[in-house]
Amino acid sequence: MLKIIFLLLMSGGIPVAIAMAGASLIYLVFQDTTPPFVVIHRMVSGIDSFPLLAVPFFILAGNLMNNAGITNRIYNYALALVGWLKGGLGHVNVVGSVVFAGMSGTAIADAAGLGTIEIKAMKDHGYSTEFAVGVTAASATLGPIIPPSLPFVIYGMMANVSVGALFLAGILPGVLMALLMMLTVAYFAHLNGWGADVKFDAPKLLKALAESLVVIAWPVALWWLINHFEFHPQWTVLVALVLLFVADKLCNFQAVLPIMTPVLLIGGMTTGVFTPTEGAIAACVWALVLGFFWYRTLSFKSFVKVCLDTVETTATVLFIVAAASIFGWMLTATGVTAAIGQWVLGVTDEPWKFLLLANLLMLFVGCFLEPTAAITILVPILIPICQQLGIDLVHFGLVMVLNLMIGLLHPPMGMVLFVLARVAKLSVERTTMAILPWLVPLLGSLVVITYVPSLVLWLPKLVYQ
Fold first, then answer.
1. Taking the model in full, what pTM does it have?
2. Which of 275, 312, 376, 391 counts the most CB atoms within 10 A of its CB?
3. What's the gap between Cα 91 and its chain centre?
C-alpha cells in the first residue's frame, strides 16, 4: 500500500520529497497502530547526523568558487593545456570539468557554472549547439565522481562507509571517464574534420604543464619531507602554503590555487588532520581566502547572495534526505526491503548478475528521482544484499553514484538536462538527442567501474590498509 500511495502522489505531479513524506504519513494514519508523530520524529532523526554537516559547507565552497571568477581561470588553464588539439574546445570542456569537479562536488553546479562559459565559447567557434551541449552534459557527470562529492557524503552516511575512502575511490574512475570522453571528442573531430581552436603556443602550454606539475609535486614533496625528516606536519603545511602563494604571485599561475582544493581536502582527510565534515569547512575557508584576499573578485554583496543561495540549496537537499529517511524506514518496517532482498537472492546469488540487475534498476530510478532521494531510498534496499554477496560497499557506492549521475541527463527528472536546455536555449527534446551519443563513453565507464573493482579500490586500500 505504501508504494501505491507514493506512486499515486508522484503521478499527480507532487515533488518527490513531499510524495515520500506524504505517503508515509497517509500509510500511518490508515494503519492505526503507529502514531503519525513518528513521521516528524524520523524525519528529524534522518538529518540529525554529524557527517551531513558537510553538505552545506561543500555547497557553500562550490558556490564561492563559482562566484569568485574561478571558472574563467579554470577555462583559460584548460585552453592552454589542450585547446590546440583537434576539436580543442571539446577537450577543454572535459579538462575544465575535471578541475571544477574538485571544487563543486555536484553535476548541476558544473553544468550551470562552467557549462555556461564552455557552451558560449564553443558556439562562437562554430561548433553545433548540440555537440556543445552533449559534451558539457557528459563532462558534468564528473562533478560527483571526482572528490569532493555531495552524493558520496550522503551515501557514506546512509551506508556507514568512510567518506574519505569514497573520495579516494572516485579519483581513478574520474580519470577513466575523462579519457573516454576525450577519445569521443577526438572521434567527432576526426569524423567532421575539425582542427584546433587556438594556435599551438609553446610558452602557454609549458606554463600549464608547470601548473599541473606543481599540483602533483606539492603534496608528494610535503609527504616526503614530513615522513623522512620528521618535520612538524602543521608547520610544514603552513610554510608550504606560503611558498605556494609566493610561487603563484611570481609566476602568475592561472589555476594552481583552485586546483589545490581537492588536494588539500583529500590530503587532510587521509592524514587525519580533519574529518570530511571539517574538510568541507576547510574548503570554504580556502575559497574565502582566494575570493576575498588573493584574487579579490568576491565582494561582500556577492558573498551575501552566495550564502542565501547556499541556504536555499541546503534546505532543499536536507528536506529530501529527511523525507527519504522516513520513507526508507517505512519500507524496512513494512518488510519491503527484506522481500526485495529475498527475491533478488532467489533469482541469483552471483555478484556479477546482481550488479547487472542493480545497474539496470539504478539507471531506471535515476531517470525519475533526484540523486539524494534515490540514494536514501536505494541504500536500505541494496546494501543488505551487497553485504550478503560480499560486494565491497565503497565499490558499490561508486557504481550507485555514477548510475544516478547518468540519470540526471534524461527526462523526466534529469536536472542537468533541464539546466543545459535553458543555458543553450534548446528544447528538451533536442537537448536529449544531443546527449544520446555521449552515453557510449558514460556506459562504457560504468561497465569498467562495475566489473573491475580494483580500479575503484586500489587507492583506498593503498591509503587505509
1. 0.83
2. 376
3. 20
What is the domain range of residue 203? 25-214+258-464
Residues 17, 22, 23, 27, Cα dihedral to 10°: 150
Q: Which amino acid is at 302?
A: S
How many structural domains does the chain have?
1
DSSP assignment string, 150-178 = HHHHHHHHHHT--HHHHHHHTHHHHHHHH
3-state SS, residue 286: helix
- Return the C-alpha torsion angle 380, 383, 388, 393, nearest 10: -160
Q: Are 169 and 205 in contact (CB under 8 A)?
A: no
Q: Give domain status of residue 8, yes or no.
A: no
| Cβ-based neighbours of 242, under 8 Å, separated by 6 or more | none
Give 13: exposed, middle or buried? Use CB within 10 Å, 0-12, 13-18, 19+: exposed
Residues 81-131 have pLDDT tens digits of 888 888 888 888 888 888 877 665 566 666 666 667 777 788 888 888 888
HSE-CB at 37 with a 13 A cutoff on CA atoms is: 1
- The answer to whether residue 229 sits within a structural domain is no
Q: Is residue 2 part of a domain?
A: no
Nearest 5°: the CA angle 45, 308, 102 is 80
pLDDT tens for residues 375-416? 887 888 888 888 888 899 999 999 999 998 888 787 666 677
